[in-house]
Each structure stands twice: as C-alpha cells, then as structure tokens.
Specification:
Blueprint: H1 8-19, H2 29-41, H3 48-56, H4 65-88, H5 107-116, H6 121-129, H7 138-144, H8 162-182, H9 184-191
Helix pairs in contact: 1-4, 2-4, 2-5, 2-8, 5-7, 7-8
Amino acid sequence: MKPEPLTDAELDHLSKILGRLGNDNSMNLEQLDGFLSALICGPELVPPSKYLPKICGSPTVFENASSAQELFSLIKRHWNSIIDTLNSGEVYLPLLLEDDSGIAHGNDWANGFMSGMQFGKADWAALLDDEDHGGSLVAIFALANEHNPDPKMRPYKQPISADRRETLIAGAAAGTTRIYRYFKAQRFLANDPLGDMPDFLRTIPKVGRNDPCPCGSGKKFKQCCGKTTLH
C-alpha cells in the first residue's frame, strides 16, 4: 500500500510538537526532513533508538505518553513518504520553510542532512572522496556552510543570490536521489547479506579534486566543498 504523505495540517502539527519539546536542541521541521533524508539515503540502517534522540534533543519533555506516540507516528509516516518518493523515481523535493519574506534558504535542511551523515561516517567520507560520485554532496555542503562560523568553510565570500540559491537547492534535491542510489547496494546487503548486489549507474559527471567546484564558487573542488570533513 502506498504510504500517505502528511497533509499540510499534519506537518504544521508536527512542527508544533517539535517546538514544544522543552529544549533548544530539538530539530525544526526543515531540519527533520533533511535529517531523515540522510538516514534513508545513507549506507546503514539506523534504528529509531539511535536517531530519535537526535531529533528530540536533550532533555526531552513530552506532555504525556500519547504526545510522544503521536510524534513518532508522524515521523514514521514522513519517513515512509520520503522512501516512497525515492524508490518510485519521482522528483524528490526537500521540505523547506520560508522566512518572513517568503524566501526558502535551505540551510536548516542541509544542516539536518549533515547531522544524519554522522551515522556511518566512514562510508560518507568515502563517498566524498569518490571522484565519480562525490559531487552529489556539493550543493548540500554549500548550503550547510553558507553561514559557517569559520569563514574558510564558507563556499562564497558574497551573499548567495536568489538564482544561485535556487540552483543549489535543486542540486541538493538531485544529489539526494543520486546518494540514495549510490548506497542502495550497501543498504540491500545490510538488510539481506546473502542477496545479490544490484548494479547502479554512474549518474553525475566526474569531479576531480583540482577541477572547479560545481557549486560555482570559482575555487577548486579540493579547496571548497571537497575539503569539508566529517567530525
């Protein structure tokens, strides 16, 4: 049965529940979407016992047991909706929040995605170093580091233009789909170690470490998004 995506009203309700968790470390709706997307696309199957504390933060305060169960139920439905989109080959669209000016920046989504990359870090680092496929992460890293406290980690010296932001968000969406395919065989074997490894096609241009960074900064890939490391 095809999973039923959360309605706008249910997404608003989920956002309110996240905001009532009683701490400053819980994710907002945009961060949650990026975080779940990374877990779903990633190299290993992460159990809820490991990833839910990252979503809820610490300390976590629920009004009652039913509130906790409601939160987990909504998260599970959204998780299944993302998987269905990626599996079906439909266009994947990140869930982005608009500011008071109606602009969707994408920074929270990208930072949520990078938080999800903390699971299976060695495999994510191998993807980053893969000259054939590492470019899938370029737009995500560019958005995540736009306001990095370390100026050296920021991909651009000047504010990102509206057109470039739109390009980066589209690149992050396309990169998510490519990453999902890249790790598909690994997830398959983790779930069924005796199964046959399916083939996956090379879907992005090769990006050498000395080539111009695809994010458009004008720097070499190794001096821009390619130098981002997982801590």
